[in-house]
Amino acid sequence: MPSLTVNGVAVEVESAGLHTLLHVLREELGITSPKAGCQQGGCGACTVLVDGEPRRSCLIPVAAVDGASITTVEGLGTPERLSVVQAAFHERYGSQCGFCTPGFLLATYALLERSPRAGRAEIEEALAGHVCRCTGYVKIIEAVEAALRGEVAAGTEPTEAVTA
Amino acid sequence: MKAVGARLPRYDGVAHVTGRTQYVDDVRVPNMLWAKALRSPVHHAAITGLDTAKAEKIKGVHAIVTWQDVPKLVYGHLEALGIPADEPLLAKDDVRYKGQPIALVAAEDEETALEAVAAIDLDLEERPALFDIRKAADPDAPTIHQWGNWYPHFENEMDVRQIRKGDIDRAFDQADTIVKGVYRPAAIEHVPLEPQTALVVPEPSSRLTIYSCTQALYFSMGVVAAHLEVPLNRLKFVGGTVGGGFGGKVDTATETISALAALKSGRPVKWRWTREEEFLCSSTRAPWHMEIADAVTKDGWILGRKMLTLHDSGAYARFSPYGLTKHSFHHTGAYTIPNLHFDGYVVFTNRVPTTAMRGFGVTSVSFATELHVTRVAEVLGIDPFELRLKNANRIADTSPNGVSYTDPSTVPTILAIADAIGHELPADYRTMTRDSRAGELLPEHLVAQVGEVDH
User: Fold this and answer.
1) How many DSSP H helices and E strands does chain A contain?
2) Contact A43 B25 (CB under 8 A)
């Protein structure tokens, strides 16, 4: 029976070992930020961090990551205390419908850890496996650049929406 | 004016970046079943046998829904607008496109549902298929729809959407040149990252709670109520969170059949399409065939336009008659052409039914018109900016369907583009406005079309 640490919490997996990590996270553990966008490794919406590396949870049998530490967006920050990457995507409009956003956030988080001074080409490389159909990527790349340059602070209180 | 020009936080932004936005697939209810569809494996066939007995016996299968379970099998997406129904919710006698749903299995998990789908006995008598709208009227073309190969129910039961404006023969007689072109944009799949998904929960009150990713919630509610023959107060729709749609989630694709499976099994049922189903079976933007002939003068006025449009509706009408009508109203693009002769057909093929996508029916003709106006400018040897500015819509000009423009933005937009790319224009063009036509901008051929504008 595989065991995992998910967002810092140790869990014993009950699903059979050939079930995908995506299935275990969503259907067994109720962690729904990784999305079943294509379930073929093509869209990036199911991305999670496996021992810090962005991986496609739809392609990984859970038995293959026995003992690993898994991070999902739920583990990055809370609405009251957003991480740098979350704050940047929120403040710089890096998200429209939001469905692809968890994957982009985790790819960006890993980039920030690995290469905090990444330039445009490296950013594009890091995001290359992620599909967004709403934004056209411009706002996403601006958000990543803001996160890398420290233009957005973690833990910032989300501003109140204006009502007319 | 607290909002215009201000950078406001998205009301849903924090939920998006914390993974807390709840899409349909993220809703969790106890005792939920998963659904999978039996779909037509061929483009066109008669159904000669459908037997679910073997599949029903598989352990873990709770309900199999076919056409026999649908209270009102055939309902039209636009019946409220007087457009007759043509599409069965689940195929009964015929399949008209590859991927058309025939049955839905609700089972303990997706694997069991798939096993049951494979165990349904389906007998088909395959028929020749039609894929090219240009061949729909050929004498040897297969007949692919019960109404024939094109939609026959425009006003007064005409089989063509027509626009006649001004005196087209006079315009073509007076022209210095006729400029012709054919434009054929292809089908486009919307590819929202969230595939079509519905979750239907039968409530003890006998209501159904329907979690839907539709872009048109109240419309979908009406479609489900019509097929189920229940009053609207039996349905509680939960929606508004759409993981991308772009027009592809206007059609009611999953809610109704899932509701029938939930009613039959007495359990909550989720039907989530695969990416493969999205690409192969979901609706697309239509392919179009547009032929344009413009009667033009050597100094750059477009006196008249003849146009033929074939709109590929796919196997059923759905919203296509509406899309073609919008297309016809916009068939001169951002330009004023006073004499018009437009014929448009909604043509049936054995492709997936086509639907809205970002400017339903209009993007196709804007594409064609912009290419064609540039072609006219090239033929005449005139600067394409100047040709556009002359013929651009102005206040009080009338559209193909006779609406007077009150606020056309063509002239300022073209001037802004010229400015942005450093395209130089003569002073009398640079200073043009969208104000009503007068002087040299109101030649004889445009006088009669100028309408009244209420301010």
Assistant:
1) 5, 5
2) no
Three-state DSSP class for residue A144: helix
A9-17 contacts at long range (C-beta below 8 A, 24 or more positions apart)? A13/A62, A15/A62, A17/A61, A17/A62, A17/A63
Residue of B188, B193, B357, B358 to mutate for A, most A C-beta atoms under 10 A:
B193
Candidates B11, B20, B194; nearest CB to A99: B194
Q: Which of A7, A81, A90 to substitute to test the interface with B, most B CBs within 10 Å?
A: A90
Determine whether domain B155-188+284-447 maps to CATH 3.30.365.10. Answer: yes
pLDDT tens digits for range B240-267 = 899 999 999 999 999 999 999 999 999 9
* B187 pLDDT higher than 50: yes
Residue A65 located in a structural domain: yes
A161 with B9: Cβ contact below 8 A? yes
CATH number at residue A35: 3.10.20.30
Is A35's CB within 8 Å of B9's CB? no
Q: Choose the mutation target among B1, B14, B16, B108 for the interface with A, i.e. most A CBs under 10 Å.
A: B16
Residue A160 in domain: no
ipTM surpassing 0.85: yes
C-alpha–C-alpha distance, residues A109 and A123, integer Å? 11
Q: What pLDDT digit, counting tens, does each position of B333-352 carry?
A: 999 999 999 999 999 999 99
Tally C-beta pairs within 8 A across A and B: 109
Indicate whether B406 pLDDT > 80: yes
Give the chain A residue nearest B275 (alpha carbons): A38
For B111-123, write each residue's pLDDT tens digit: 999 999 999 999 9
Higher pLDDT, A22 or B80: A22
How far from B153 is each of A46, A59, B82, CA to CA, in Å?
46, 49, 9
Q: Where are the beta strands (DSSP E) in B230-318?
A: 235-238, 269-272, 284-285, 288-296, 302-314
Global pTM value: 0.94
B406 in reach of chain A (CB within 8 A) = no
Give the minimum alpha-carbon distance from B30 to chain A in angstroms, rounded to a whole number: 12
Q: Indicate if A65 and A105 belong to the same structural domain.
A: no
Residue of chain B minimizing CA distance to A156 = B14
Q: Which residues pair with B188 in a beta bridge?
A: B285
Determine the structural domain holding residue A114 and report its residue range. Answer: 84-148
Token pair belonging to B56: 């029903």
